[in-house]
Design a protein that fits this description.
Shape of chain A: globular
Number of strands of chain A: 9
Order of helices and strands of chain A: EEEEEEEEE
Helix content of chain B: under 10%
Radius of gyration of chain A: 13 Å
Shape of chain B: globular
Distance between the termini of chain B: 39 Å
Largest sheet of chain B: 7 strands, mixed
Oligomer: heterodimer
Number of helices of chain A: 0
Distance between the termini of chain A: 36 Å
Structural class of chain A: mainly beta
Strand content of chain B: over 45%
Structural class of chain B: mainly beta
Number of helices of chain B: 0
């Protein structure tokens, strides 16, 4: 089964840039999607298909994907960005969705 | 604006069947070739995909749950359901329903989520 690896935690000061990685074997060949989950709330899609943003998601959220690493970048981080972030792909070999373990973003 | 709302039993006894329903409002269960899915999250842990169904009935399930899971839809009521049999304490979690976007078979993601419902498995 395909495995996605995320760092458990990332910390960043307000106004700085946060980078959250998602590692997987040849993940560049997959379409990667990212979700934000604030405490006590349902997840929200923030990036889909590697780098597209749904309507209503600020331009500060961007994504990239190449080789063995996909990256979610949050520019000009705000206190309200503090949340858990999950990456996700579709594993076509097994016909199922795979989530990364999640990364807790702390805004210092 | 599409909204999803989970409902069902919040307490299930071990070995019994967990049953949840997701009501679709602000849109149609059958519109645009929509697909619908379930995801769960044990307290303090990450997201676990359960499965999804295309509105015409085709299903895809998590291999680790496949033998116990059934996802089905009711077009007349604009809702879909999850049944998980032979539950144990390990099935205790918040259960989310979601609209699943499927493009060309390999672009699969969840763009609208319900608020989630807590299910506890205990005698």
């Amino acid at each position: 089964s395909y495995v996605l690896t995320q760092p458990p935690s990332v910390s960043v000061a307000p106004g700085q840039t946060a980078t959250i990685t998602c590692g997987g074997n040849n993940i560049g060949g997959y379409s990667v999607h990212w979700y934000q989950q604030k405490a006590g709330q349902a997840p929200v899609l923030v990036v889909y298909d590697d780098s597209d943003r749904p309507s209503g998601i600020p331009e500060r959220f961007s994504g990239s994907n190449s080789g063995n690493t996909a990256t979610l970048t949050i520019s000009r981080v705000e206190a309200g960005d503090e949340a858990d972030y999950y990456c996700q792909v579709w594993d076509s070999s097994g016909d199922h969705v795979v989530f990364g373990g999640g990364t807790k973003l702390t805004v210092l | 604006q599409l909204q999803l709302q989970e409902s069902g039993s919040g307490l299930v006894k071990p070995s019994q069947t967990l049953s949840l329903t997701c009501a679709v409002s602000g849109g149609s269960f059958t519109s645009g070739g929509s697909s619908w899915g379930w995801i769960r999250q044990p307290t303090g842990k990450g997201l676990e995909w359960i499965g999804y169904m295309y509105h015409r009935g085709t299903t895809h399930y998590n291999p680790s749950l496949k033998s116990r899971v059934t996802i089905s839809g009711d077009r007349s009521k604009d809702q879909f359901s999850l049944n998980l049999s032979s539950v144990t304490a390990a099935d205790t979690a918040v259960y989310y329903c979601a609209r699943v976007v499927v493009v060309a078979g390999a672009h699969v993601y969840m763009d609208v989520w319900g608020k989630g419902t807590t299910v506890t498995v205990s005698s």
